[in-house]
Amino acid sequence: MVGKAVHPDGTEGRPRNWLVLVMLLSLWRGNSYGYELIKWAAAFGLETMNPGSMYRTLRQMENEGLCKSEWETTSKGGPLRRMYSLTDAGEAYLDLLAKGLKQYQQTIDYFLRQYSSR
Q1: What is the pTM of this model?
Q2: pLDDT digits (tens, 9 = 90+) for 67-83
């Protein structure tokens, strides 16, 4: 695994809204609940994330109309769990963010080519 870029002030080298991007992408792939979303986030380098941060982010996304949730029972009659799904507005926002990331990637690629040629 590639190491994380960390600035001297302790911030990591990824977009500020990285968790929002990851949650939107996960929900774009299909409806999901908290535990699955936490596992998915770990694949994007968020393995040490506090679950509370994820749930606060999901609540904020829901308030902004990017996702919605409803309580559902498990197939084995277990406790209720909150199932999250992407809204049309969330899908449109994900598309906008993906286009922005593509442009950012081109800028980063150019930077790295320039840096490598020194």
Answers
A1: 0.77
A2: 999 998 877 778 889 99
What is the helix (H) or strand (E) element at residue 82, kind and residue range? strand 81-86
> Own/partner pairs for 1-9, CB < 8 Å, 24+ apart?
4/45
| 3-state secondary structure (DSSP) of residue 5 | coil
Angle among Cα 50, 54, 58 to the nearest 5 degrees reads 165
Measured distance CA(27)–CA(69) in Å, rounded: 11
Instruction: Give me the amino acid identity at 35.
Output: Y
User: 47 falls in which pLDDT band (50, 70, 90)?
Assistant: confident
Say what the alpha-carbon torsion angle 52, 55, 57, 63 is, to the nearest 10 degrees: -140
Task: Look up the CATH architecture of domain 18-116.
Answer: Orthogonal Bundle (1.10)
Residue in the structure block whose two tokens are 């309580």:
71
Task: List the structure tokens of 57.
Answer: 């982010």
Q: What is the mean pLDDT of the chain?
A: 85
Buried b / exposed e across 2-28, counting CB within 10 Å, b at 16+? eeeeeeeeeeeeeeeeebbbbbbebbe
